[in-house]
Amino acid sequence: MNYKPLIIVSGEPYSIFSEIFLKIYKKKIKKIKIPIILITSKDLFQKQMHKLNYSYKLKILKETDILKNRIDNKYINIINVNFKFKKTFDKISHKSSKYIENCFNIALSILKKNKAVGLINGPVSKKSFLKKKHPGITEYLSRKSNIDDVVMLIYNNKTGVSPITTHLPLKHVCKNISKKKIINNVKKIHQFYKKYLNKKISIAVLGLNPHCETTDSFSEEDKIIIPAIKTLKEKKINVKGPYSADTFFQNKNLINFDVVVGMYHDQVLTPIKTLYKFDAINITLGLPYIRISPDHGTNNQMIGKNQSDPQSLYAAIKFFNEIK
């Protein structure tokens, strides 16, 4: 049976991506049915592979090859993007930006033609690549697809979390929360689980203020969050809240819910990363394709040491393999 390939953009060339990919290639990726194509610099990837003491065969593809040839994981399949480098592992800087942009453009061209099942991107430096143009890759890909209302879901098969606001400074969170946005996000999460995982889920919504209370004249819980939950219940979505964030992430609460929706990034990402370490993946909902990012960054201090945990990348690949 022929499967559409999974596209992986390797991301920042000076990161731990090559290490974590190589760690799981022989024992796990080779056995995955869905073909995998890396969009990366062939020369740099090859040099990093040898530096990390791995030796695998590479197969260089062109974008047109995806339409003609059956691709499997007997080789590491690469679409080459030229990148000039002096060192096998170097410091992260803005000089990678054009290269990363070219990688994403090739990936999005393939996805636009409906020739791939989805996209995984390796870690990208927000400071060097995105600068101040976009808060994160979620927003970058949203703009590239001309879509405004995407949703960030950090998925684990036990508990998922989703922030209403994503990569925003904390002082801007209050004015970027609305009843409409909460309803839209929860509906997208509900639909995603139903469509791809055939699962009807229960969703908890957290409050914004400590203990869901405030001494201000305007209460986000009373004016925004509770009315949103009421509307969602009327739409027959299994949602409850608001719950106080400081005590919610205990097992006695988590066992009753599949997804926890918070009001800002660290409100839900800090506890999920504490609970599950790297066993979670970042899924962007609302794009014309499924996009997943492993739940780790460039991990600068570990580059070239061959000590990084590949669990999150494998979880991302495995997710695509299972929903296929």
Number of domains: 2
The CATH homologous superfamily of the largest domain is termed: Isopropylmalate Dehydrogenase
Q: CATH class of the largest domain, anyone?
A: Alpha Beta
- Following the backbone from N to C, one meets helices and strands in this order, namely EHEHEHEHEHHEEHEHEHHEHEEH
Contiguous uncertain segments of 5+ residues: none
Biggest sheet layout = 8 strands, mixed
Question: What structural class results from the helix and strand content?
Answer: alpha/beta
The rounded distance between the terminal residues' Cα atoms is 12 Å
Using DSSP, what is the number of strands?
12
- How much beta, percentage-wise? 15-25%
The strand line-up of the biggest sheet is 3-4-2-1-5-12-11-6
- How much is the radius of gyration in Å? 20 Å
Q: What's the total helix number? A: 12
In the CATH hierarchy, the architecture of the largest domain is: 3-Layer(aba) Sandwich
Average pLDDT figure: 90
Query: Which percent range fits the helix content?
Result: 25-40%
Overall geometry comes to globular
CATH topological fold name of the largest domain: Isopropylmalate Dehydrogenase
Could you give a quick summary of the protein structure above?
The model has no long low-confidence stretch (mean pLDDT 90). The termini are close together. The chain contains 12 helices and 12 strands.
Describe this structure in words.
The chain has 324 residues and is of the alpha/beta class. The chain folds into two domains: 1-147 and 287-324, Isopropylmalate Dehydrogenase (3-Layer(aba) Sandwich), CATH 3.40.718.10; 151-285, 3-Layer(aba) Sandwich (Isopropylmalate Dehydrogenase). The chain is built from twelve helices and twelve strands. The chain has helices at residues 17-25, 42-51, 65-68, 97-112, 126-130, 137-144, 179-197, 220-234, 245-248, 251-254, 265-276, 311-323; strands at residues 6-9, 36-40, 58-61, 76-80, 118-121, 151-155, 160-163, 203-206, 239-243, 259-262, 281-285, 290-294. An eight-stranded mixed sheet has the order 3-4-2-1-5-12-11-6, sandwiched between helices. A four-stranded parallel sheet has the order 7-10-8-9, with helices on both faces. Helix 7 (179-197) packs parallel to helix 8 (220-234). It is globular, with a radius of gyration of 20 Å.
